[in-house]
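Lab notes, practical 5.
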Amino acid sequence: MANKSGDEWMEGSVVGDLEAPAVLTPKAIEGFAAGTHVLVSGTCRENAAVEVFSQAGKWGDALVVGTRWFFYRVWGRPSGYGGWFGWAGRGAEGGFVHAVQVVNGLRSQPSLPRMFTVGRQQKSPIPEVVWPKDGSEVPILPTTWDVDRGHVLVNCEAGADVEFLMEGHLRKDFEDGERGGMCLVGHTVNLGQSYTFQFRQTSPGFLPSDFGPPITLKYVAANPEKSTVDSNAFTDKASANVQKPNAPSITTPVNGDSTLLRKRFRIEGACEEGAFVQYEYISIYGVSRVTALVLGTTWYANTLGDVALTIRARQRVNGSEFSDWSEPVTVTGDLTAPLIVFPASGSNHPEGGLFMSGVCDEDATVEVLAQDGAFLGNAEVKGTTWVYYREWTKGLKHVQVKQTYRVYTSRLSETREFIIR
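Output from the prediction step:
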């Protein structure tokens, strides 16, 4: 058994001869700024399995290297996502954390809890639904199995993440980015069905808001005489001119832009007032056509970033045939580099063993490299936590990391500089 200090042995109770693991970080009653990737770590039996818990339940399994265990909590990353994909932690949280170790099937008592807080312990304001209105019939034009993607435009705080209840079930399988204080929330819907939604937001550095009042929307087949949501909001023009309209434009993104891989990004464009807009995106998975949300002369949509994604749109106005497709816009997906959290840039450390650690996509392969590109070794990875141990010689060190997730390889991280004395 590894030697431990008296303070480390004090944490937790013993079942038989199996003590609770020691929790070394975070410090007791420690406060962190919003966006922090908090390291929960400590010591344990050699190669034990260590589980990390909050008062709400299990957070995950720690990465164990010898007698040390590590678990990064990526703040603001909703559960249900597999990877990290460079998402910044935004929300706040407060409470207790503890750990349990398991050796040869024997489970220890939990360690004594550590309390810490992240961000401000105040609720975000409740977001407001801008469009469609409660009770609206929303036209969609399904192309396969009577399924389409419905969109709701929500007024939110700058930088907020928006979640929603759909028929009473919390949906976290889509992350919909904010832009200019507006968040476009997307969800899969079936033709002819009604759905009831409630929305909440997490503003940067604050706790999630309460859910707003419910709205009920019915998704109906697009009608050429009523192309938009709540068409009474616009002049109800007769179909006197059913000539083929010009193609709508795509203003955001622009051709050649990049976005985070497998993260939703906002699409916007200009169209004619009262138009019905359909957009098409082509990826390595094939071609999909989806109905956009139209508000005035602007259409809105969102989709997942991929290695390469080509988007185009068309519109139908006052019962006309569809326009030609717009000029295509191609967007590339970027798998961000893993994040080096420790050691801090410019920090000093004694000669000998040092654990580097950080955040990566779930179960990615993380390579550690010197500044000149020389390969130093692979980090050990579990979940979104990576750890690299090395016996360092004295001197100034410059280190970078990169990751491979599934078939994707990231760019190199920024160089982390530290000194071994």
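Observations recorded by the TA: Residues 1-14, 224-241 have pLDDT under 50 and may be disordered. Residues 6-9 form the longest helix (4 residues).
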